Fold this sequence. Notes:
mainly alpha, 2 domains
Amino acid sequence: MTRIKDWKVEDLSPEQKEIHDTILNGPRGHVVGPLRVWLNNPGLAKSAQTVGAYARYGTCLPQSLSELAIITTGRVWSSAFEWLHHAPLAIEGGIDPKHVETISFGKRPIFDNVKEQSVFDFAAEANILKNVTDKTYKTLIDNLGDNAAIDIVGICGYYSLISMTLNVFKVPNNTDEWPLPEVSDFKGMLNN
Length: 192
C-alpha cells in the first residue's frame, strides 16, 4: 500500500491537470509510479518530468546503453517497480538477458561489447561508490565521450530520484513477473 494519497484525474488542480496531460500526451503515454506521487506536488512533478523526458528519450546514448544505466541504478536501489518496467526494455534494446539476470543478483556481468561494459561499470560505481574511479572514467570517455558521461550521470541521478520515490512511498509493482532477488551488498557489481 502506498504511503501517499492517490488521486483521480477529476480531482487534480488546473496546474496538476496541465502536467498530467503533458505526461499523458508525451512519449511516456501514461502517468504511473513516481509520476503519480509527484503530481501531489506539481512544482516537483513539472521539473522532474522534464528532466525525466530527457533522461529517458533525449540523451546521446542508444536505448540499450540508456536502459543498462537505468537497470543498474534500479538494481542498486532494489526498486522492484523500476526493475519491472526497465529490465524488459533493456533486453528489447539489445542487452543480453543473461546479463540482465546477472545484474538482478547484484553481480557484475562481463560483456563482450566494450561500450556496454563501460556503461555498466560507470553506472555501478557512480551508484555504489558515489563516484567513479579514474580508470572507469577514462574507459567510458575513450569509448563513448564526454557527453555520454554527463548523460549517464543524469540518468543515474534521475533514476535514483525515481527509485527513492518508489521505495519511500511504497509504490507497489503489482506483479511478480520480474522479481528482484534479495541482495544485501552490491560490491559484487564493482570492477575489482
